[in-house]
Fold each of these.
Amino acid sequence: MIAETIFSAVSAAGLGIAAITAYRKRYLSAARIAAYSLVPIGLVLTGAVEWAVDTAFSPSAWVGFGLLGGAWLLFMTTRAVERRSGGTRKDRKAAAKAAQQDAVAPAASAPSIGPASRPVAQPTAKPKSSGSGEDFSDIEAILKKHGI
């Protein structure tokens, strides 16, 4: 009840200031002041002030706002942790499966980590063939063509 009275007084004072401004022939400023001064009385007439006052002094409303804030905080925390850990549970399972498959060489039958169960044969070096000069003949032709 007191909030409605205060808002009505503020509106009346604003309209008085707008009238004085219009008397001084500053009509644009007077119209703007009148528009601002009509907002508080409009809020009173729509019931928004009564709702705000009832909400501000209601303990259950504050508990509700606190619960909404806590839910929002939990949601944002879980999103941040999810982004740092690498995605959803499905993504983590796929990554773990891929990492497990990468631990074994594609053609190997045993894991690549640990001691070898059989000796590893060293690849033998291929003898150089006499035809290796022919491999560079195309390159030599291109260089000669450009004068190098």
Note: The chain has a mean pLDDT of 82.
Amino acid sequence: MNIFRSSRTRTLSQPGRLARTAAATAALCILGGVGSAYAYWTATGLGSGSAVNGTMQTVTVDALVPGDTLQTSLVPGGTADVILRATNPNAHPVTVYGIRGNGTATADGAHSGCTTTGVTFTPPTLTQTLTIQANSSVLLTLQGAASMGTSSVSACQGAQFTIPVTLEVRK
């Protein structure tokens, strides 16, 4: 009995095996990259930090302290400068963003008969900001900010007027 053996051998398809190997390698690279990204973004660290939020002290506004002098006088039908001394008691500079009136003008105590003062305050429009340095004061002259109407009684002659003013300041 003759047995024939075939010399033909069966070869595995190389292109299919190469494609599967390449796909598996790509999947491992992608998963490795995702794992690295996840590890990077979820990493935690140790350390400490602190911050202090202090309270801003009130900037005070005074009119005519000793040494300040008036440059203009207020007369019926006219205007005059308003002089303010702003004091910043804070350890940091502050910036003035606005000035506005905060009540009715009153005459000094020596002029009790000055019941109708006719004095009004017109706050200036700030075209630039003003900085008050830490622990210091500045003298502000608001040109023509006070006016006196012709309805003022004659008992107001020679009086000094108090005009309540508020400054808007920010750190």
Note: The longest strand covers residues 136-148.
Amino acid sequence: MPPLAHAEDSVAARTGRLRAAWRTAHEPVAGVSRRLQLTAYAVPLVVLPSSLWRLPAAFDDGISPGERMYIPSLSIVSELLAFTAVGLIARWGEVFPRWVPGLRGRRVPTKAAIIPAAIGATVLTLMFTILALVNEIQGTTIRGDDLPDDFPGEAGGWEAAWFYICYTPLILWGPLLAVLTFAYSKRRRRTDTPAAA
């Protein structure tokens, strides 16, 4: 076998194993409906437009190196937090994965998942669904100050439209997470309760 063909087979085999491991880790557990699966997969997608919208600002002139690092970091952390919603339907949300030292293979305590998810859903709903809409209607910042003239929504035209297209999906983040948290709680209560004799 020529060396190039052997290298391509090796890469394909590694890619296939990685894809199979990814699919196994994120496959929904028994009792998760197709609708809940789609809801969980939608959470990172509703956060993605705002994460991408911020990235060009990291290359603006006149911003400090700290801001230059903060902007992409905020986008990455936002996406990672949004991706944890998948854990509310996947096996790794119920049993710690093999790579977690000291906990691998043990059941995830139900409250250890529900409490942070419920707090997150509440905060996100207040921040992006309620407070952001109220502030937008009033034309103020979260602190109550008037929106600055350079605020993207105040620019008008294409820039304002692009801003709203990218940030409006964030309204759904908290409510979607709340639905997933409630379903996770209900499912775990059913599976954690020993069957009657």
Note: The chain has a mean pLDDT of 83.
